[in-house]
Design brief:
Elements (H helix, E strand, L loop, with lengths): L1 H17 L11 H4 L16 E5 L6 E6 L5 E5 L5 E6 L4 E6 L5 E6 L13 E6 L5 E6 L5 E9 L5 E7 L3 H6 L15 E9 L3 E9 L4 E2 L19 E2 L12 H10 L20 E5 L4 E6 L4 E6 L4 H4 L15 E3 L19 E5 L10 E8 L7 E7 L24 E3 L14 E4 L5 E5 L4 E5 L5 E6 L26 E5 L33
Parallel strand pairs: 13-14
Antiparallel strand pairs: 1-26, 2-3, 2-27, 3-4, 5-6, 6-7, 7-8, 9-10, 10-11, 11-12, 15-16, 16-17, 17-18, 19-20, 20-21, 21-22, 23-24, 24-25, 25-26
Amino acid sequence: MKKTHLLLRLLVCLFVMSSFQAKVDKKDTPQKQATPQQKRNMFGHGIPRGLTIHTEGLAEGYVMFAVPNAALIYLINRKGEVVHQWKGNYGVMGAYLCNDGSLIQNAYDPDFPVFAGGGESGRLQKITWDSKILWDFEYANEEYHAHHDFALMPNGNILAIAWEAKTAEEAMAAGRKPELTPKAGLWPDKIVEIEPQGERGGKIVWEWHIWDHLIQDYDSNKANYGNPADHPELLDINVGDSLPAPITQDSLNILKAMGSARRNQTLENRGSDVYHMNAIKYNAELDQIAICSPNLSEIFIIDHSTTTEEAAGHTGGRWGKGGDFLYRWGNPENYRHGDSTDQQLFHQHDIRWIEKGKPGAGNLTLFNNDIPYKDSMNYSALYEIIPPTDENGNYLIEKGKPFGPEKPVWTYIAPDTISFWSSFISGAHRMENGNTFVCEGAKGRFFEVTQEGEIVWEYLNPYRGDIRKPNGDPIPPMPLTFIGFRATFIAADHPAFINRKLEPINPQPHVFVMPSPPQAIKNN
């Protein structure tokens, strides 16, 4: 028993320390050497929370975010005061506001089977302004599971990312190398378009599977054989990370007890979440879908104008390429049009088109999470890029070269580089005034930054709920205490706010206070 407690404490320390440790270049600039170590506090422990920066002349509006470990979505004003809340029945990952004041949100299904990749939700819900659940659709079983993000369409349908289970035998028959194949098989991603029906129903009216767009040059006797360099519109099934190093069942049990391993994690499915798509956005004008894979460090754009049958093939649709990639960017080594020195994205999140009426409309923004810095600490950045297209809107790629652009048209990096860093989750989107609204997810930090890099508003989420495990045990608050997958700035003239008086609720919600650590048990 003493050894178990000691190992638990050691693993906790290692997990937290791994988020902060990094080598510092002795030749680094004085500015970087003088940066206080607390600025490298990725999870935001022990720093002031709530409203920290509020300048004059801010755009009028509100910020919406999910409260971690809670069934709550909060809406705060520019003073950091909660003016409204939506309360559901399950923990919430993220939400999008509808014109009538209702939300579409993805909630954590409490008893889903099989899948364990992080970002599991499994349930889509519509909840009214006064917190009545109008629609509750479960998309989670042993064969598939909705996860991470979804997109609202003008017709009221919903595009959702989901895993689908493939056995190890199916993966290797498709050309996956055995040494890259977990015993439990792979969970490649698909996209489903859901038409809500009734209180709990949902009809799948369109779907796309990455499994239909693979290539490999490992085994000429297996499916998908070809040269990946000749087919950037396809995904090499053997790109990505190697399988994680083996661990024992005892070690996995300890990680689960700490909250550092997913509920359904097994020794045989570690590495099954091969692509981990974490964001999806829909462009109605182009009828295109943008998706994001942090595991591949790439973003992709596909055609939605296809039928489901065309989406499974290589021809058809408005853009003539079926369900193949129209565009990809971030890591050309994946399709052999470059090497590691050409990689521009590193575990990125939240790919979006800039909306009409906002500066840079039509460009793409993303949160580049974990950029390596030579001999020093990794950092995050915001990118705005312009994909090269012809006069008809077709994405361009020169023979033998990667998809452009060579570099972003706008970048935000913290002046000291290292203080802006969230190695996972997070996001950003353009505002009507040309500023960019940012969710630095690990820290639960939301801020507005100008094109010149000045932060004009900043707020650190001080809230956390108390959802418990099925057996009643608390979920450990460390280290993911205040995290936020997304936060959204919503302009004050949004239709959802018409004829609604948004005043600070009284009393304001209680801020979360970290409980004192348990006292050490003295040995007699």
